[in-house]
Amino acid sequence: MSVELAPALEEVLRPVLGDVTVENLQRLTGGASRTTWAFSAHARSRSGTAHARSESDTAHARSESDTAQTGGAGRPLILRTGARDDIHASMELEAKVQQRAAAAGAPVPHIVNADNSPAAVGAPYLICDAIAGETIVRRIFRGLDDGGRARLLEQCATALAAIHRADPAGIGLTSPDDLAGWRSRLDEIGDTTATFEWTFRRLADARPEPSPMRLVHGDFRMGNLIVDESGLAAVLDWELTHIGEIYEDLAWFCIRAWRFGAPETLGAGGLGSVETFLQAYESAADTSLDRNTFRWWLTVATLRWGVICRHQAERHLSGESPSVELAAIGRRVSETEWDLLELLSGGGPR
């Protein structure tokens, strides 16, 4: 595919970066819903660059200030492709949201081009600058001392506050009901557990008053962040972005799965305590958080992960995607049930 993909990329990059050649095209591992490629763009000549158009001037979500930084060793770029569906944001919407988040001060990759049409490269696509750094969480943890963990935790809170300041208007974002959505996903499987059912009922009975709706990332967690020697370099994987309550992002960052084996005392992404994280967010966002509302959302986030685990297991059990990895994820349903029972009884990470 890379032989066909390279000239296609050269064609879609020409209006943005000028006449370039695509080299070192490599498919990367990881990514459940998108396929990711790394490559470099090299200028064929010093002339031929094109000014990128603004969001309002084109149906393609391109950067407002691209230049053809493609000489020398080339410009490192990332290509993400994926078919359109009803769950994930389109490529153009992802690009627009990242541009809005960047304008609000969030560290995100610079968008070069995006298109929802599969015509150019065989699938909807997004192209952005490559960001140097590490995404594998256990490697990140090995490189952090206590001070480094504290710094990264504060940077995560600051980035999330910036994301929530971004303007979500006029770009096609939806505002789904998170609890109802996961209820439907579980019903589609046709299987449940007593703990899940009890949790759904308790959450419905104790639902807090809604807070203001903001742009949310939807999957803000360790594993979707690039970390370099200075700390947080970029927030990745925006395909679940939507309009929602800020507590959704805050709580998702703090479930057990994203601690990657770190102790409960480091309940916020394996970096620090949940309370430290919430206080850092309050400082960065100049707001006050309701701890009871956060706890309700933390229970929703934990239930969400449990339903995801059960869904992944079903993909294996049904024969849709036979996989030892999916089967292993399914075994984490019981772990999630334990966490839910602890949260509902007043325990859990602090």
From TrEMBL:
<dbReference type="GO" id="GO:0016740">
    <property type="term" value="F:transferase activity"/>
</dbReference>
<feature type="compositionally biased region" description="Basic and acidic residues">
    <location>
        <begin position="52"/>
        <end position="65"/>
    </location>
</feature>
<protein>
    <submittedName>
        <fullName>Aminoglycoside phosphotransferase</fullName>
    </submittedName>
</protein>
<dbReference type="InterPro" id="IPR002575">
    <property type="entry name" value="Aminoglycoside_PTrfase"/>
</dbReference>
<feature type="domain" description="Aminoglycoside phosphotransferase">
    <location>
        <begin position="65"/>
        <end position="271"/>
    </location>
</feature>
<dbReference type="Pfam" id="PF01636">
    <property type="entry name" value="APH"/>
</dbReference>
<dbReference type="InterPro" id="IPR051678">
    <property type="entry name" value="AGP_Transferase"/>
</dbReference>
<dbReference type="InterPro" id="IPR011009">
    <property type="entry name" value="Kinase-like_dom_sf"/>
</dbReference>
<feature type="region of interest" description="Disordered">
    <location>
        <begin position="43"/>
        <end position="77"/>
    </location>
</feature>
<dbReference type="InterPro" id="IPR041726">
    <property type="entry name" value="ACAD10_11_N"/>
</dbReference>
